[in-house]
Amino acid sequence: MPQTKKTMTEPLKYRSWLKALADAAAARQITLPAFTPRGMGTARTAPVADGRFVTFKRRLVSEAEADVDGVEWTFWREVTGLPQPVAAFREPQHPQPEGVAAILALITGWLIEGWTADDTKAAVGARRPTQALQDLARGSSRDTPAIELHLDHEDLPTS
Amino acid sequence: MCESLHEVTWLWRGVPAESDEVEDVRNCGEINPPEPNRTGERWRHLHVSGMTETAYTNWTTDRTLAVAAASSCSFDDGELTGQVVILRVRVRALDLERVFEGREDEDEYLIEGLVEGVEFSEDATDEEDDD
Fold it and tell me: Average per-residue pLDDT in chain A?
């Protein structure tokens, strides 16, 4: 019987994180709130029952930089009418299957399974240990060095 | 006030072809932000963090970034066609008191409130149009 030589293949690259997530959720029979594009590479989910939602942003950086950390996911909760970020992290602009599965698990945990803010931050930290929310926010705006008000989660329910 | 745009001719913005903004630009050359009352430093900070339902719209000085950004959220899912539209506005037509720099590590500018004089950009040769 002839031996066939196995060849390495590149993992499938999706063009869009949002499409990749939608496909992965459908394959796992997970009903995620849909992401609505808002222009300039931003999109957000509809809020779920307790004001939680997720945003996606394609950072306005070069292709080379975007290949490293070109998209930013942020998990939010609206408290008394003010959206507050709970966790944020960056990923390469081109999704890979492992990353899609990981992000799907995080989004499902936050939006559907009701993870606490602390659990969510811990899960995000486990995936991207160097990308704490404070690190992303610090100096993130040339006009606004940092707004710690939005980084204080002590007023968020923990369950 | 934004002083870093004095050498810049155009700001660019990419949106899905199905965006209401496309229809607004076609009808009157204007873009309205989704939440006109959400102004100020706090809302700008939230906007650049991804929560864009504010009194701002975000733009860039680099047309290729506008294309890349819009394309990252565009795919054919039955409601979207996957097509993007690139818009531009002339910097000298803007009140720079209403233009703010975004994140330090991104080529991002926020315009507060109504943006008038918005045009469609057909292709990359528009970048050379500095009349």
Answer: 80
Distance CA A27, CA A135 (A): 34
B105 with A18: Cβ contact below 8 A? no
Hey, are the CB atoms on A40 and B44 less than 8 Å from each other?
Answer: no
* Domain B10-122 fold: ADP-ribosylation fold (3.20.170)
- Determine if the pTM surpasses 0.80: yes
Look at residue A37 and give its three-state secondary structure.
strand
Q: Where are the domains of chain B?
A: 10-122
Cβ-Cβ contacts under 8 Å, A76 against chain B: 51
Are B67 and B15 spatial neighbours (Cβ–Cβ below 8 Å)?
no
The ipTM (two decimal places) reads: 0.92
Q: Which of B21, B50, B74 sits opposite A74 (nearest CB)?
A: B50
A contacts of B104 (beta carbons < 8 Å) = 139-142
Q: From edge to edge, which strands make up the β-sheet containing B56-59?
A: B56-59, B109-112, B99-101
